[in-house]
Automatic annotation (TrEMBL):
GO function terms (MF aspect): metal ion binding; oxidoreductase activity
Biased composition (Low complexity): 356-369
Lineage of the organism: Eukaryota, Sar, Stramenopiles, Bigyra, Opalozoa
Spans annotated as Disordered: 347-388
InterPro entries tied to this protein: IPNS-like_sf
Source species, domain of life: Eukaryota
Protein's name according to its UniProt entry: Non-haem dioxygenase N-terminal domain-containing protein
Amino acid sequence: MAAAAAVSSVDESVKALGDSFDGIPVIDVGAWLKKDGAEVDAETIATECAKAAASLRKYGCVFARDPAFDSKDNDRFLDTLEKYFETPEDARMKDTHPELSYQVGATPAFTELPRNHCDRMKAYKDTDKPLSECPPEKDCKWRFFWRIGERPAETKFGELNAAPVVPEGIPEWTDVMNTWGGKLLGCVTCVAQMAARGFGLEDDAFSSRMDMGPHLLAPTATDLKRFGKEGTVCAGYHRDLNFLTIHGKSRFPGLYVWTREGKKLAVRVPEGCLLVQAGIQAEYITAGHVMAGYHEVVVTPQTLEAVERATAAGRSIWRISSTLFSHMASDGMLEPIGKFASEEAAKDYPPSWWGTRSRPSSRQSTSRATQRRPPPRRERSSHAHPGS
């Protein structure tokens, strides 16, 4: 009851959503983890689930406070990625696999190209416009893909489930990536379950479809020595193609998100929290009730302040994002479910394989991608990657 009430009032005052940071609600994953015990009452659980669902609908994202999260793990991850990207570029190029459309290993700078959303961008108020160019330009960031979780023994989408690439000279790499990626996947799975209950679905309506998905730890890296001028776009305006994306806190701010009403928000991840964003699979499975959230990363005055502090301390000024893309299983059917399924929804979101929404040909943010026309409802609505 509480969940349904909160979701129905999603367009009312943000205050109704409870704990928030910069207006974006913060949900307590710890309460969900204790739901079967006597420590947390049912009303608290219902409220947290309602907040998860309402925030994903209104903002396309939500902050999650998870007791399993340790800032030391995030720091260890960032340290390791900084160490890797400080190595010579020629060495990193050995870790690239263009024959797999960069689905594993490293992706060089100026490879990923966001889809053209110029019409949408021009429709925003001046204060809400992205800084990304129209038409879009290739991103100056690098990326590294590392698979997380088990993969199916047989699949129609082998390139989504390829073996990982382990860089040379960093013996701790596998442990660091698996530890941090595993924690991110655990948290985003809980958020998926909380949102499902908040939407009035079965708890596992989303998470069961995530089982054996091609989840990817996909940190980005921007060399702020080369691309540290204020206003530089590190990641162009886009949406994510996966289900839910989860991020740890970056050492260099610069992420902006857009609400479904088109309001631009600067994101500051609270200490002890993770950021979860909705992707196109989430939009598809809810028939647009949740819209895939648009976002971009740019160099801001706050980014430059962080660069000054890092330089003074003798630290790396590669901007690393600790990003994980959670996916629905590649061989599952992609279509609206439960109360979101209807004849009208089937027209706008026709059934297709999950994997066809995550194949290289569907990844509009890579330079090899095919520019597909999404369902009309999605393009008419306000609402990344990889992304679109």
